[in-house]
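Intended use. Records such as the SGNH/GDSL hydrolase family protein entry shown here are meant for training and evaluating sequence-to-structure methods. They are not intended to support clinical decisions.
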Amino acid sequence: MKKDIHKATFLSKSIKLTFYAIVFFCGSLFVTRTIDSFGFLESSYGHYHFPVSRKIPYFRQGEREFGQINEFGVRIGSTKSNFSCGYLLLGDSQTFGSGIFWKDTFSEILNRETNCQWTNVGIPGFTLENEFSMYQKVSPYLKEKTVYLIVYGNDIYETGDTPDYLHFVNHQKMYLQFSSFFFPKATRLYLKKKYFVSIQKRMEDELERVSKFPYSPSTHKSKKNEVVDFLPLKTLYQISPTYLSSALDTKSFAKINFERWSRIFFQLKDQIEKDGKQLRVVYLPLEVEYDRTRYEIYKNIGFQMNPSWLESDSELVLDLIRLTKENHIPFIDLRNFMRYRTDLLQNGDIHINEVATRMIADVLKKDL
């Protein structure tokens, strides 16, 4: 009898301890998630940049030119000592001008053809987090009063958990995985910032490696009708078959990423307005939104496609139109000038060419 009573008492204590443990766990989870949701643990996003105060080689189809990097880690463009109108350009490789000579970037065309100062702080691979962080760094030192945010069609995808970022996360310490359960937003922000530091290191290592190679100008000139295998796109399909949907379908595949992007966007907007400056948004579409040939190439590779991207409006575009209209932000949709054109891309590449930068410069001049 005593044995049964002792056993019952032990079971009762075990149940109570289990109950208390569950209550404590749920309470802790509620408190930590609440703290996390209000952003009390948030810090700056961080960004990477080119090695400061150096000359770096850039290439266009094998032809090399050097660019001087300033103290902020961005390439130095044309400058005007006195100007009445100044514009700061935030963006990624499309804004920077990957694959074309510096003189042919739309920022440099505008510097030559207008009396305004156009300062390009775009860097290849930048996400909106990086652009916001870069703006915070350079804005106090610049006189430009208007900020153009160049939104490229894959920006929503890049704001999410890309394969490269997930690979980085999977190699982090276990305590960070544990922390992400209780503080998902704060931990992700910390990991993202650490991830950008790793990109900085990779960039510097790659530049150091390339600088040691002897340079011999390329004798090969790409031809307009040259057959291209689009190997980078095929590789992209292997690692991220939903790439396009994760960029453009903001009501389904890209819903979470667009919500993340939107939060950062409003933080950037508020900071720009706090600084007494004006924000303008320019949408530079993915090639599947205007180039029929590229649309078919992506389709043949195997990407999940949506005809509305090309023929009407993606969910991303509709969201951008709504977002800018509701917040009274000037919006330029470059699809209106690019749709159905097949002469705006570099051969076998996703980046725009000199024809496109010329067109963009003309559009921005009309916006002045």
